[in-house]
């Protein structure tokens, strides 16, 4: 009887470990992406973009764990302050540090021997803006979550979410690999784009909660149609199509905010 009670206690507490395990997998994907990115200095110079693509795939894999840890916490009734802290710390590694490392190393490797000290410092500064903004955003999210503040529609974010910013960087890497872009010019533009994404994270521009939107698709025929169109675009145009979809998401925030301002003035 005593043995059965012990087993039931372990079974009772087991679900609480599931979301945390998914969160740890998220952070491990980010750590793996950083380590693999640093391998570029040992790889074939003609395939450096391939190394960054693998790192980008690892970051995308982390997004899957990030989406499901919250879902698992709600489904198992295992949400906690500890889980919120863990999630943000993992996101800082995977969606803050890892993309910035990819951009810095990618810029350095593609423009080897071309950049001067000032250009190198500019790249470091631009990527530091991204990391700083990611940290600020995640800390702000933690404060709101712990104080149970609910501002606006929960289906929307205030500012671009960190996974969205990381996805934009990863898609840019894929796009550079699969298209005939002049890599030296691309390596110069990418850090600037990274800093802009960082500023969007700490802005008050509204962005749709992509995760909740996807999980609510089956409840709306309109959403199902939109998702079907996005899948067709991604399947037909592959990297270019996915890049277009992610870019549309990046631009959707400023456009939605601008539309809201115009609408409020007309009213």
Folded structure, characterized:
The protein has a single domain (2-266), classed as Four Helix Bundle (Hemerythrin (Met), subunit A) (Up-down Bundle). The N and C termini lie far apart (70 Å). The protein is globular and about 50 Å long. It is built from ten helices and two strands, in the order H-H-H-H-H-E-H-H-E-H-H-H. With 267 residues, it is mostly helical. A two-stranded antiparallel ribbon has the order 1-2.
Proportion of strand residues: under 5%
C-alpha geometry: globular
The end-to-end distance, rounded to whole angstroms, is: 70 Å
Report the count of strand segments.
2
CATH superfamily placement: CDP-alcohol phosphotransferase transmembrane (TM) domain
Strand order of the largest sheet: 1-2
Architecture blueprint of SSEs:
Blueprint: H1 2-13, H2 17-38, H3 48-75, H4 81-110, H5 117-146, E1 156-158, H6 162-178, H7 183-201, E2 206-208, H8 210-215, H9 221-237, H10 239-266
Antiparallel strand pairs: 1-2
Helix pairs in contact: 2-3, 2-4, 3-4, 3-6, 4-5, 4-6, 4-7, 5-7, 6-7, 6-10, 9-10
Brief summary of the model shown:
The protein is 78% helix and 2% strand. The protein has 267 residues and is mainly α.
What structural keywords apply?
Four Helix Bundle (Hemerythrin (Met), subunit A); 267 residues; 2 strands; 78% helix; two-stranded antiparallel ribbon; 2% strand; disordered N terminus; mainly alpha
